[in-house]
């Protein structure tokens, strides 16, 4: 079987033909500054993580999983989606677990806003809180569902209270509602 041999002249001919074709085409290259259409609705995260599992050790242990964490240090916040967490006390016992569709952590204050389907369960208080929005003020240790946002509070003893404008004061161990309160509260006494 005869072997084909490539000739250097033929390669040059193909290269010249290709260059002529490119030169004759309507394409031009613009080496000016790149321009990107501004389609982003907001800032671009400095760091973005997907399917995250983290453990934060301070006074307590916090285990956190998230579908996505986007960090915006210049703007001072982190965004979370599909958030789940568990907090353990110094003794290692589970104290709090919860979940939210999304959330924002403000880096300078460590305040947190949780949105979507938000649910907490406290093993210490033996109670569940459910809402569409909750805000945590870290310095004041106050959890709120401001305005007309409905909140449901269910205790393991059968108490169930629904209302609007909830405030939970962690230092005073108190819960208040500003409007629309209804339900059954078991105060532990037999009457």
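Sequence proposed for the structure above (191 residues):
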């Amino acid at each position: 079987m005869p072997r084909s041999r490539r000739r250097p002249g033929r390669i040059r001919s193909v290269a010249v033909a290709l260059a002529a074709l490119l030169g004759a085409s309507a394409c031009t290259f613009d080496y000016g500054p790149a321009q990107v259409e501004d389609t982003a609705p907001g800032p671009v995260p400095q760091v973005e993580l997907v399917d995250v599992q983290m453990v934060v050790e301070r006074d307590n242990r916090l285990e956190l999983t998230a579908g996505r964490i986007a960090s915006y240090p210049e703007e001072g916040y982190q965004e979370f989606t599909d958030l789940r967490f568990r907090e353990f006390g110094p003794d290692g016992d589970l104290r709090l677990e919860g979940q939210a569709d999304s959330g924002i952590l403000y880096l300078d204050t460590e305040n947190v806003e949780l949105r979507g389907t938000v649910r907490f369960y406290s093993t210490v208080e033996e109670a569940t809180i459910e809402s569409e929005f909750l805000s945590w003020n870290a310095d004041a240790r106050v959890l709120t569902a401001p305005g007309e946002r409905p909140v449901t509070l269910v205790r393991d003893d059968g108490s169930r209270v629904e209302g609007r404008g909830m405030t939970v004061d962690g230092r005073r161990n108190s819960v208040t509602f500003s409007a629309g309160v209804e339900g059954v509260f078991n105060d532990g006494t037999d009457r």
